[in-house]
């Protein structure tokens, strides 16, 4: 049975929040020296990658960000510059 796209989006958000939590306040060197944290971050990045494979095209096209989902080179561009205004 196929999961609903919302569940995959929740998985992506949960994993991204964990990555942010695990790396907050860490320098790059501290991150690289801590196998536990770097392994946890890599695992969550893999979760994000796997979940993105299951997001239907119609949802991807509605995003305010242009995400090149299938490029080897991940790039993000905003369709709406106001998304970055504070």
Automatic annotation (TrEMBL):
Keywords: Hydrolase, Nuclease, Nucleotide-binding, Phosphoprotein, Toxin-antitoxin system
Record keyword Phosphoprotein present: yes
InterPro entries: HepT-like, HepT_RNase_toxin
Source domain of life: Bacteria
PANTHER family: RNASE MJ1380-RELATED, UPF0331 PROTEIN MJ0127
Protein name: DUF86 domain-containing protein
UniProt source species: Neobacillus paridis
């Amino acid at each position: 049975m196929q999961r609903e796209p919302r569940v995959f989006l929740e998985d992506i958000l949960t994993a991204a929040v964990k990555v942010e939590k695990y790396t907050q306040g860490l320098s790059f060197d501290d991150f690289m020296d801590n196998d536990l944290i770097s392994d946890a971050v890599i695992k969550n990045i893999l979760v994000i990658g796997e979940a993105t494979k299951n997001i239907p095209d119609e949802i991807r096209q509605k995003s305010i960000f242009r995400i090149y989902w299938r490029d080897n080179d991940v790039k993000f561009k905003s369709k709406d510059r106001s998304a970055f205004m504070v």
